[in-house]
Amino acid sequence: MARPISTPDDNTDLDVGPSFADMRLDEKSRRIIEWAKEIDAANGVGPKVLRGADCLDAVEAFLSRFVVYPSDAALVAHVLWIAHAHALERWESTPRIAFLSPEPGSGKTRALEVTELLVPRPVSTVNVTSAYLFRRVADPEGPPTVLFDEIDTVFGPRAKSENEDIRGLLNAGHRKGATAGRCVVKGKRIETEELPAYAAVALAGLDDLPDTLMSRSVVIRMRRRAPDEPVQPFRRRECEPEAIRLRTALAAFARMIPEGVWPELPAGITDRNADVWEALIAVADAAGGEWPARARVSAVTHVTAAIGGAPSLGIRLLGDLRTIFGDHEHMLTVSILEALNGIEDAPWGDIRGKPLDARGLSRRLAKYGIERHTVRIGVVVGKGYSRGDLADAWKRYLDPNVTDLDDRAIEREKREKEDLPLMDGDVSVPHIEPVTSVTRSQAARVY
Asked: Of 250, 276, 252, 251, whose CA–CA distance to 265 is shortest?
């Protein structure tokens, strides 16, 4: 059955031939580029309206030929991220997308390679100086899309000190209007200049990133392909013509995304998670079709996965204290330390070669506004903590539906011991019911 395309002039329908969903990828690309050319020729308003959903469908098909994704939610997120990069000035913030894996050979670099063909002004890099990156981002012709491979080398134990500047750019540059201040020498004078830092960034690397960067990213956990997961060989010279057509269509679609129209986000996606997903869901809403529902399912899936990730040592400590306190109203420091150090497989008995002591406990809890004071337990008086002191932190940082935390924080403790990059902060996240498996037809009913 033919699919109509609405015309803005008289609201009539034009027959465009076979069902778009039944077309081969090359035919989809050809039809999309025809629409895009007509729109370009009329300065954004052509005789036919480009269907955003069809455009995203074609991009999805293109990516799926070369990359095996861990889930449909990951593929959806990648498609939407590529599309959002074409309308960067419309958003208040741009999420980073991070392809991470525990082992090499998991498709991370390939994901960046296909992304490079579809995004505007790509800058692909592995090892750059901060000065180069700052000036590329400040390009007067428009911000580039930065594709940073082997990002783990930037934050590793042997990373250069100047990489802290790159880290700052990656962190702050997600917000529109962010700038980086620099001093420049002009003759005998030293002047200051403000360089724009706002740019779309895709990352690929081993293991995890620092927490400040993870919380600003859509994280896709890549895996090595199984024997029954074939992909098409990637040859840039062969697939680039198709990719150019799709990129042109994406640029045309991006100009149709309405400004000042913000999406309704799923319940529980707030604060930093809202910053990450707002632009992507806005793209999906503008595209229509199944994409609004699929985008929201992808958002909930990724946020749920982030909640279930390895907690920081601070979160682990709060969880273990909640377990230890049980029904007690007060506990002495010595009793708390004895209980903490006695938890099997917990990190407290070996913090950088020493067991957690009273000073270390006090220092870690002070970050949450919890102070040690004098408590009375029967006839015994000594320094310790009260349930009332901890209740606010438990409410803010722990899931009320979980009475105990597992030992996933051991990995973070290992990173401390081996002088690997530490996670920067403890992030409070809301409880969201997890999405385990959703088909495309089910997704259409979710929205």
From this structure: 276
